[in-house]
Amino acid sequence: MITADKLDDIIDWLIGGARSATQSGDVLGELCEQLFAAGLPIYRVGIFVRTLHPDVYGRSFIWRQGQEVAVGEADFSLPDSEEFQTSPLTTLLQTGQPVRHRLNAMNEANSVVLEGMRAEGITDYFAFPIVFTDGSKHAVSIQTRQPSGFTDGEIAALTRIIAPLARVAEVRALQRTSVTLLNTYVGSRAGERILAGQIRRGHTDFLHAVIWLSDLRGFTALSDRLPSILIVDLLNRYFDCQVPAIIKAGGEVLKFMGDGLLAIFPIADDGSDEREVCARALTAALEMRTAVRDLTFSAFGGPTERVTFGLALHLGDVLYGNIGGANRLDFTCIGPAVNIAARMEKLSGGLGRTILASPAFVQHDGDQWHDLGEFAVAGVARPQRVFGLKDETAG
Which long-range contacts (CB under 8 A, 24 or more apart) does 253-258 make? Predict the structure, then answer.
C-alpha cells in the first residue's frame, strides 16, 4: 500500500510541473512508474485529451506495466464509432462523473473496450474526469490485474492525484495547441519563430529561398457562376493538390490569397543546397500538375469541367518576418523577388503554360526547360526572361 509520504512526493512532482518529463507521454510514463514503485498495483493507465486541431479529434496516451507509453491520435470519425459509443469514457465525458467497472464480476455490462480489457486479465477499471479550467472534459482511466481489484484506500490515493494531473495535462495540452494553431495558420517555420519570441512588428530576416506563387485560372468568373459553398469546396480541393506536395518537399505555405498560394523553400545560409531545393520544389510542382489534372467540378448539374492553374518558380532573396498594423501582424515574406514571381505567374495563361520558371531557378537543371523569351512585366524595369517545361506546349 502506498504511504502518505510517497503519495505527497508524487503530488509535489505534479504540482511542480513534472519538469523532469520533456514530452507529454513522458509525464504519464514517469507518473505511472512512480505510482507502481510506491506500491499501487496499476497495470494500465490511459489518458484521452480532446484537441483543437482541424484533423485530430483527440490524443491518447497509454501506459502498460513494463512498456513504453503509446501515443495515438484519433480523427473525427471516432465519436461515431461503435468502440467509442460503448466505451466507459463516453459516459464519463457526458456526465462528468467517475466511472468504475469490476471486470471480475460476471454480470459486468459488455462493451468492446471492456471485453478487450477483461481478455487482457484486467479485473478493475476506474476512470476519472480531467476538467480543464475552461470547463472542457477529458479523461484518465486506471486499471489493475489485482485479483480483488482496487481497494478503497488505493482508489482514495488515485483520486488525490487527479487534480494536480489535470493541471499538468492542461499546460501540456495548451502548449501543443499553441504549436498546432501556429503551424496550421502561419506555417511551422514561422510558428517556431513566433514561439521563440519573434513577435515585434518589423522584426524581419533576409532569407534566400525558392518562391512558389500559384493561382487558379478564371477564378473570378467561376465565383460568379458557382454557389459559394461549391467555390469553397473547389478551393479546398485545389489547395489539397498543392499543400501536401509542398510540405513533403520541405516547403512552407505562407499565405492563401483567395485562390492564390504563396510558399517558400528555404535555402541554407551558405547556399550549398540550392540545386537540391530547386529539384524538390520542381518535384512538388509536377505532383501538383498531375493532381490538378484530375480536379473537376460541375456547375448546377451541368457538364463536368476541369480547372487550370498557373505557377511561377523563382529563386531569390526575400524579407521574412512580421509585417502589419498595430496588434494585427502577418508573418510573411516580401521583396522584389516575390513581385517578380507574381508577375511571372500572370504570364502563364497567355503563354498557354501551367509552370513557368526564372533563369535563377532554371540554372540548376536546364535540361527540363525551354527558353520562352523575354517579357515586359509590370513594375519591373527590365524585361524578364521566362522558361517553360519542355513537356508542355502552348495551348
Answer: 253/187, 254/186, 254/187, 254/190, 254/331, 254/332, 254/333, 255/330, 255/332, 258/219
**Is 354 or 364 the better-scoring residue by pLDDT?**
354
| Tens digit of each residue's pLDDT (9 = 90 or more) over 110-140 | 688 888 888 899 999 999 999 999 999 999 9
Domains 4-185 and 194-389 share a fold: no
For residues 344 and 304, is the Cβ–Cβ distance under 8 A?
no
Q: Cβ distance 6 to 123 under 8 Å?
A: no
Residue 43 in contact with residue 64, Cβ under 8 Å? yes
CATH number 3.40.50.620 is the correct assignment for the domain at 4-185 = no
pTM equals: 0.69
Residues 51 and 57: their CA atoms lie apart, in Å, by 6
> Within 13 A of 260's CA, how many CA atoms are on the CB side?
13
The one-letter amino acid at 47: I
173: enclosing H helix or E strand: helix 152-185
Domain range list for the chain: 4-185, 194-389
Are 341 and 379 in contact by the 8 Å Cβ rule? The answer is no
Q: Name the nearest CA neighbour of 128 among 93, 152, 86.
A: 93
CATH of 194-389 among 2.60.40.10, 3.40.50.720, 3.20.20.70, 3.30.70.1230:
3.30.70.1230
Convert the pLDDT of each residue in 200-222 to its tens digit.
666 677 889 999 999 998 888 88
Distance CA 204, CA 184 (A): 21
Q: Phi/psi class of residue 190: alpha, beta or left (left: φ > 0; alpha: ψ in -120 to 50)?
A: alpha
Q: 3-state class of 331 per DSSP?
A: strand
Please tell me what DSSP assigns to residue 76: T
Cell output for 91? 459516459
